[in-house]
Amino acid sequence: MCGIVGYIGSQQAPAILMDGLKRLEYRGYDSAGIAVHDGAKLCSLKSKGKLVNLAGKLENTPLTGCLGIGHTRWATHGAPSDINSHPHLSSDNLIAVVHNGIIENYMEIKKELTAKGYKFISETDTETVAHLIDYYYTSGFDFREAVFKTLERIEGAYALGIICKDYPDMLIAARKNAPLIVGLGEGENYIASDIPAILNRTRKVYFLNDNEIAFVKADSVEIYNRNHEKVHHDVYEVKWDIKAAEKDGYEHFMIKEINEQPKIIRDLIEHRMPENGNRIDMDGIKLKKDDIDYISRIYIVACGTAYHAGLVGKNIIEKITRIPVIADVASEFRYKDPILDEKTLLIVVSQSGETADTLEALRIAKKNKARVLAVVNAVGSSIAREADDVFYIHAGPEISVASTKAFSAQVIAMELIACHMAMEIGRMSAEEFKAIKEEFYSIPSKVSAILQKSITEKELAKKYVQSKNVFFIGRGLDYIISKEGSLKLKEIAYLHSEAYAAGELKHGPIAMIEESSLVIAVMTQERLYEKTLSNIKEVKARGAKVIAITLNDNKLIGDEVDDVIYIPHSSWMLAPLLAVIPAQLFAYYVAYLLGTDIDQPRNLAKSVTVE
Ligand code: AGP
Asked: Has 606 been annotated as catalytic?
């Protein structure tokens, strides 16, 4: 989604803003712009399309100044265009605003301001904010008060960066339901919607909370709540290296992140299952036997790929603890009037920790006194801060819009939570734990082995790149990996793809199978081999080409399919971690051959902070 960066200091702002925006490109955007205070007035440049367009404009019309705000826009209100791009300026050029989120009552405010003579030139909700601040400011409030007054009026979600012509020494930032940080430098400070935007300049940040306003000067930062009370924030020192947010020689972030998986999985396992320990280290998460006995229902709620990881969790928790679990996508859960009380445990899963629907699901649960455990990657994110307990997956920054390494780490997290619960309630013995721990420890090298043979997926991508329809099928955990593989293919290769529970095919979808269809059958659950095999035969009989992803000792698959991707043998529980790798690689290589924008696929955003 949209990205924000702001700078105040003694260096030239335009270059810093452009560099920050470049580092936010991964979030997904369709236009960009910057506004700079040149010492006397506010100047802005905006452009539809990629940053290179804006850079071209900047080259023709250089801007100078040591205070500025920049934005990459992912269109919600109004099509991508120069006019709709941020920053939005008040008509008298007094105020400039960049905004992430949606102002829900903008129509009403727009009407009022129009009646007062304000002229609107864009279709955006954001322009209202610029005019409203201008209205209060020109009515006699100072800049700070005008912003306070505006925040009292606007409803919805926002991260705002604001500058004023009459205040060349002040950058204002405000947030509600959209992430925003303040970066601390020496004699200079920053604001940003995301750490990578400024990580090459500072590691020290404040995470703003909802309803807070930061008054940022070159040598000071003051943060206030809505009651005009000053609030204190501890400085958070970002631990991860800037290298983690760079391609490091890889052509795309996605392939880099796919290749990071063995290390991430190893680190997570070693951290949570210390080699000489006999339990899972839950880092103080309250999930002891008494807590589990108290729980009457568990929900797992998330979106997209994180939801798929949640589904793996549901299956495994139910299977090894025999506690029923309901898994739901957050956008549905929040409007279902779910049954929630203090005996409910809600597990939310989110890479970014900022997904609007997941965050709202968490808030609804908390309002109803449920306990919330968050499985999150982004440290300090809204979901992490609002949950009762956090299980950090420590996958490092995931830049590619298509989630890969976070998925694997989320699956590990769900598996570890399941094993921990099973042990606590006496459904997993010490011997069983020892055996499964050995299995876990073998996973990183098995993932490496699959990655080393990625030539197979590359070749298969070449062979099947022209497929018009791709069907993923599987049963049990294989069905979930089918869903994830299909999502990857859709989002980065823009290929029509569907995932079906293999047994459901003959209840309808098989009607779509024809000569040109490609079916990818995921087969890692040995007890279900024969069942899936009969479904393979059904589609083969109707002319489909079939690729199987299966364990290397599957003797049944033989000549039944056109191609096989073998993965190392693994227990049923951990097989999803292996089966997903070929699916990720296949999607990557197909997208590569089709020449799509792999890291920033069209219409998508990394962190979906609107409903
Ligand atoms: C995954 O490839 C997608 N880009 C998307 O489905 C993503 O997983 C979803 O939006 C949830 O994001 P989150 O994990 O940051 O909450």
From this structure: yes
